[in-house]
Design goal:
By secondary structure, the protein is mainly alpha-helical. It is 72% helix and 4% strand. The chain has one domain (65-294): Orthogonal Bundle (MetI-like fold), CATH 1.10.3720.10. It starts with a strand and ends with a helix.
Length: 295
């Protein structure tokens, strides 16, 4: 039997076997099943028939709400990932400074991310209620407004609120990812830069950003995946109403599958979403790795 440095070659693979089995059962096989279903005829009762070719994909693309849902998904991902990354980076810079109560501030910051998304969305639903929402109550008591404001007067505003809640619950994750990168930077680098006369912006772009880039890359890729697949916030706040105007792809395919009983197009949308995620994540990772190689 072939040995490597006195050890059996198959020992590392034996230790990896449980992880490989779990990934195969809970990730690879479900993906393959969804791919198969997307090319199959499926009745409203869920009975799988024969091969349907690209019919499910054609039907999915020609659905009345498809264009609206895709645009919503684009803005949902861009706004939540982009703004949460920007704000999370700024907050991480603040949390990396030494000040009284820093541990308490870090503990408070983790609450929105650690709490269930359904609870977060339900709380914000209550906050922006027109009749008895706490936001109107606070503003009225402070004298900032004279009459209660309908914070959900149109579907555009409701979608903005959904994005705001998404940003609010995503900021802590980005903050702690960036914070871990900031704490690994040697302070002597900043001291040398100060001695050389480098200002805040020079230190930021010459030291901080290059050394924090790996942490930012990880948080951004994971955020793209998490936010794209995020279901509870939108479903809890609006359920895509009115007429799928506030739906994203994930909530829309759920409604399509379980309410409209269009299981074929729903599976096709799942595959389309999966391919979009793979494409976006791949492009981002290749771009980041290329910049690191050039640096």
């Amino acid at each position: 039997m072939i040995k490597n440095n006195g050890k059996k070659w198959w020992v590392p693979y034996l230790w990896l076997l449980p992880s490989i089995i779990l990934i195969s059962v809970f990730v690879v096989f479900p993906i393959l099943i969804v791919f198969r279903l997307s090319f199959s005829e499926i009745s409203k009762a869920g009975v799988v028939g024969g091969f349907a070719g690209f019919k499910n994909y054609i039907d999915a693309v020609h659905l009345p709400a498809f264009r609206t849902v895709m645009i919503n998904t684009f803005w949902w991902v861009i706004s939540v990932v982009g703004l949460s990354t920007l704000l999370g980076f700024i907050i991480a810079m603040v949390m990396n400074q030494k000040f009284r109560g820093r541990k308490i501030a870090r503990s408070i910051l983790i609450f929105p991310w650690a709490t269930s998304l359904v609870i977060q969305a339900s709380v914000w639903n209550y906050i922006i209620k027109y009749e008895y929402g706490s936001l109107n109550s606070v503003l009225l008591n402070l004298g900032i407004i004279k009459n209660a404001i309908n914070w959900r007067s149109s579907y555009q505003i409701e979608f903005i609120w959904e994005c705001a809640v998404g940003i609010f619950v995503t900021i802590p994750f980005v903050t702690f990812c960036v914070l871990s990168g900031l704490q690994s930077i040697d302070e002597s680098l900043y001291e040398s830069a100060r001695v050389d006369g480098a200002g805040f912006w020079n230190r930021l772009f010459s030291i901080t950003l290059p050394l924090v880039r790996p942490s930012l890359s990880v948080s951004t890729v994971l955020n793209i995946i998490y936010v794209f697949n995020s279901f509870p916030i939108i479903y809890t706040m609006t359920k895509g109403a009115p007429a799928n105007k506030t739906d994203t792809m994930i909530t829309y395919l759920y409604m399509l599958n379980f309410y409209d009983r269009k299981k074929g197009p729903a599976n096709a949308l799942s595959v389309i979403g999966f391919l979009i995620l793979c494409l976006c994540s791949g492009i981002y990772m290749i771009t980041v790795m290329r910049k690191e190689d050039e640096a």
